[in-house]
Amino acid sequence: DGVTEVLAHRSDNLRDKFIEIPCSEDYDSHRRFAGCTPRKCGRGVTDAVITREEAERIRRIAERGLSLGGSDGGASILDLHSGALSLGKHFVNLYRYFGDKIQEIFTEEDFALYRDVRQRIQQRIAQVFGISSSAMYLTKPTFFSRMNSTGAKTTHDEYWHPHVDKVTYGSFDYTSLLYLSDYSKDFGGGRFVFMDADSNKTVEPRAGRVSFFTSGSENLHRVEKVQWGTRFAITISFTCDPEHGIEDPLL
């Protein structure tokens, strides 16, 4: 892998760490939205937006939802917006599949916390990149992920390949990850890796840590394979294009 630098250790308590990098040309092939489309690009990490206790409560939402299904392979997805839930080698729609039973699994408080956390992350991204929070829209996919060391059964389980979010999902302009478990305590491997020309820069997950970045090729990245334990996170993605916006989930 060449040179690897750690951008954020699990033991660090980072208020605001931000590294500016030149924007790629990816945004030029999409419609630009004044006051939102990235002109300043980069990546940031903060432990000061979401508390560990809130992260634990959010993780319990993920655990309850994923207990209804789960992939046969190493990566399981729960999307409260679309209802997508990994089940075996496929996906089902949680809301259609379980119907009114959903009320026994999630509460209004769960969804209120989810919305609040999402809003705080959105505001922090807007502040750091100098854009208006109201010009950003939540976009899909925004989802919980649970990763373990089980071998891949489908391509969905192969989460470790390098990729660029803007190339994979054209709507993405800003990507964030809220980690819900601790590297080296809850799981081994599973670090987030930015792949730069000169070196790799890693983020070690810890519960409550938010990592965020502009979604273009300036932030090519991958996740290491999880070696042991279980890694929980939520990917929260934003677009500048209102046509690609999605609503917060409602119970």
Q: Under the CATH scheme, which architecture would be assigned?
A: Sandwich
Which range best describes the helical content: under 10%, 10-25%, 25-40%, 40-55%, 55-70% or over 70%?
10-25%
Total discrete domains: 1
Order of helices and strands: EEEHEEEEHHHEHEEEEEEEE
**Number of helices in the DSSP assignment:** 5
Strand residue content: 25-35%
Strand order of the largest sheet: 2-3-13-9-16-8-5
What is the number of E strands?
16
As residue ranges, the low-confidence spans are none
- Intertermini distance: 44 Å
Overall spatial form: globular
Largest sheet data: 7 strands, antiparallel
Question: What would the average pLDDT be, to the nearest integer?
Answer: 95
CATH class: Mainly Beta
Keywords: Dioxygenase, Iron, Metal-binding, Oxidoreductase
Domain Fe2OG dioxygenase: 140-242
GO molecular function: dioxygenase activity; iron ion binding; L-ascorbic acid binding; oxidoreductase activity, acting on paired donors, with incorporation or reduction of molecular oxygen
Protein name: OGFD3 protein
